[in-house]
Write a structure and sequence with these properties.
The protein is an alpha/beta fold. It contains eleven helices and ten strands. Helix 1 links the parallel strand 3 and strand 4.
């Protein structure tokens, strides 16, 4: 079965999760409970998404009402850029735990390989990207904190029983190679943008070699980025003829075909949806398989098209040029 992936320490992560980025707070408690009823157990959260209290409300209600046990769930959150200093890592985690109404996380990730100046919790939370949004010329204020310092503080969270697994987001091969040179606990998971326009074959091969499980965010590609002006509808893959032909052959939707391609590659995926109907549709990807030829046709759609690139959006939206993939 490909609905569970085994990590390098023996933990098992559900290969399909529900991503919480950009889901409205008001609908989240009920949406989380509906997802659990459908069968979802993997929920992908982050401080920066600004909705962890609402996710926590939904999780707490589901557990209290007997929809699931805590041990059945896989809850991921992420350390934001402003909390990379060793003394801020545990307080940042504790804030997420409090908001999510949990005693531990299944997975805690460094959100970006970007360390920015600390913003006190009581001053602004989530702190987002700007150090001072009210400044005459607001920008991201960087802080020269080595990844090693952050990672060693993450390792402490594991030894304290607050986190079961630790990992990274948006890291390239060189950063991972450096991290592996000193990590006492190897990263369990790398989360990166991954879809048929950005298949990242070399990165996936390297992670497979190093026994790091990969989770793909934005697994449908452009769809996640229309509302924030980072993609346009003509970039959608849902009407692509190669995708629709395969969908017709399987009597499935184009979205199911793209998501099936994601899990069949051996990666986890965390698509976002606010629709219970789409939740059920997405969960149906374990009911069929794609042929090797169909997998190859979808992979051939690759354009190395990255939508979520700090080297692009930070310059435009936050007056700071922050390339990390080059």
């Amino acid at each position: 079965m490909d609905n569970l992936l085994t990590l390098n320490n023996g933990s098992q992560i559900p290969s399909l999760g529900l991503g919480m980025w950009k889901i409205e707070k008001t609908i989240l408690p009920e949406l989380v409970q509906e997802a659990i009823k459908i069968g979802y157990r993997h929920f992908d959260c982050a401080c920066d998404y600004g909705n962890e209290p609402q996710v926590g409300e939904g999780l707490a209600t589901a557990i209290k009402s007997g929809l699931c046990d805590r041990n059945d769930l896989w809850i991921t959150s992420k350390l934001w850029n402003t909390y990379h200093a060793a003394e801020h890592v545990r307080p940042a985690l504790q804030r997420s735990l409090n908001d999510l109404q949990l005693e531990y996380l299944d997975l805690y990730l460094i959100h970006f390989p970007i360390a920015s100046k600390f913003v006190p919790f009581e001053h602004r939370y989530p702190p987002e990207w700007f150090y001072d949004p009210d400044a005459e010329f607001p920008k991201i204020e960087m802080d020269p904190i080595p990844i090693r310092e952050t990672w060693e503080a993450m390792e402490e969270l594991v030894s304290q029983g607050l986190v079961k697994n630790i990992g990274i987001c948006n890291f390239n091969c060189s950063l991972i190679r450096d991290l592996l040179s000193y990590a006492k606990i190897r990263p369990s998971v790398l989360q990166v943008e991954l879809h048929p326009r950005l298949i990242q074959e070399k990165l996936l091969k390297y992670c497979q070699q190093e026994e790091i499980t990969v989770t793909g965010f934005s697994p449908l590609g452009a769809e996640s980025y229309y509302s924030i002006g980072m993609a346009s509808p003509e970039q959608s893959l849902l009407a692509n003829s190669s995708i629709t032909q395969i969908a017709d052959a399987h009597q499935r939707t184009p979205a199911q075909i793209i998501l099936r391609w994601g899990v069949q590659r051996g990666t986890a995926i965390v698509p976002k949806t606010s629709s219970p109907e789409r939740l059920r549709e997405n969960f149906g990807i374990f009911e069929f398989n794609l042929s090797d030829d169909e997998m190859a046709v979808i992979s051939a759609l690759n354009l190395n098209q990255r939508y979520n690139d700090p080297g692009h959006f930070c310059d435009i939206a936050f007056n700071t040029f922050l390339p990390i993939y080059e």
